[in-house]
């Protein structure tokens, strides 16, 4: 994928403070059956915001608000036990999910969106709209959705096609307000 997959392990968090926080909170997040997507520290004037993004590791379900609230409380309690950011007098903790339209940069992001409509750009091609059918090692299977020739006419669908992850330069879920499969 031209949108580079996020590094893993020690290289995952470039900011050493974010890496320290990630190391501290990952067991708490994992204990709740979630995956730590990202940790970001951003300073605006005298205040600092710590943004923690969590997601389910697999499946197509969404993280509910009650779970996000539980995680937020658990992280806050963990921070109370250990002075995580001693250089800061105060900070705001924001815990959320990555959001429906985040770029899909890892195979598991695609796995979490099977059945959804994606906008996919491949190297040297125009973006296409396609319904994600399956994720295999190294590729995805999609059915392209072509616009209706005239208003009120049904959308046209192509044949299933396989796209290698290496060919994908950008992919994002398209929010649909109604969908029947």
Helix and strand arrangement:
Layout: H1 16-31, E1 34-44, E2 47-56, H2 65-81, E3 92-96, H3 107-111, E4 117-122, E5 128-136, E6 139-146, E7 156-164, E8 168-173
Parallel strand pairs: 2-3
Antiparallel strand pairs: 1-2, 4-5, 4-8, 5-6, 6-7
Give me the CATH architecture of the largest domain, please.
2-Layer Sandwich
How far apart lie the N and C ends? 28 Å
**How are strands sequenced across the largest beta sheet?**
7-6-5-4-8
Task: Estimate the strand proportion.
Answer: 35-45%
CATH topology of the largest domain, anyone? Answer: GMP Synthetase, Chain A, domain 3
Strand elements, count: 8
The gross shape turns out to be elongated
Instruction: Look at the helices and sheets and give the structural class.
Output: alpha+beta
- What's the gyration radius in Å? 19 Å
- What is the helical fraction, as a range of percent? 10-25%
Secondary-structure element pattern, one letter each: HEEHEHEEEEE
Total tally of structural domains: 2
- Largest sheet: number of strands, sense, barrel closure: 5 strands, antiparallel
